[in-house]
Specification:
- This protein is α+β, with helices and mostly antiparallel strands and 196 residues long.
- Helices cover 35% and strands 29% of the residues.
- It contains five helices and seven strands.
- The chain has helices at residues 10-26, 99-104, 106-109, 152-165, 167-194, and strands at 3-4, 30-33, 67-71, 74-92, 95-98, 116-133, 141-145.
- Strands 1, 2, 3, 4, 5, 6 and 7 form a seven-stranded mixed β-sheet that branches.
- α1 (10-26) crosses α4 (152-165).
């Protein structure tokens, strides 16, 4: 499944994924791993709490095949990930540790080693559910983020309902994308004929 979480959040991430998938299936939808022979677009995942400034690359793991749900014959992708937050860390003994632990460490207090502080993104323990259109030319992406760890236990039903309700909007976006692609191809064919 498309689950990008830290080791500390893994058990809860699996539980949230299972509950969400069961709610979607109970509503008559099919949750699957994307077929191997079908190219499915996967929306970019930016796990940072503060997504500004834009980063130029991400080194996050991503599943080879997306987790998808078929709602009214519309294919949605679903990714669940651990939100990261920027924290101050100190470099000590070859590793970065949270600043509160760093300041209490005996080697820091004695100034017996060379060290410094900086900021890093670290898992917050809060999850995000990201649903997206898997169709080329469509840009529909919706995120539900926990403000406090564990609050999805109260909101998963409404998230599943909202996702099911978005099928008509995405179906319309797919139709528009197909028309735009056809028009673009027609314009390309005209240009190509002009220069023959």
């Amino acid at each position: 499944i498309d689950l990008v979480v830290s080791q500390d959040t893994l058990e809860r991430g699996l539980s949230v994924a299972s509950q969400l998938y069961l709610l979607l299936e109970d509503a008559g939808n099919r949750v699957r791993i994307a077929p191997n022979d079908q190219h499915v677009y996967r929306a970019e995942v930016d796990e940072r709490e503060n997504t500004k400034p834009h980063r130029h690359y991400s080194d996050l793991w991503g599943s080879y095949r997306s987790t998808v749900v078929y709602i009214k014959d519309i294919l949605f992708g679903i990714t669940i990930f651990d939100i990261s937050e920027e924290i101050e860390v100190g470099y000590l003994n070859g590793e970065y540790i949270p600043i509160d632990q760093y300041l209490l460490h005996a080697k820091f207090k004695n100034r017996s080693v060379f060290s410094w502080t900086s900021k890093q993104n670290r898992p917050s323990g809060r999850l995000c559910i990201q649903a997206y259109s898997t169709y080329p030319g469509t840009k529909w992406v919706k995120q539900w983020r926990e403000a406090k760890a564990g609050e999805f236990s109260k909101t998963l039903k409404s998230i599943a309902s909202e996702l099911v309700g978005a099928a008509d909007e995405v179906a319309q976006a797919v139709k528009v994308a197909i028309l735009e692609a056809e028009e673009s191809q027609r314009q390309w064919d005209i240009q190509r004929e002009k220069y023959r």
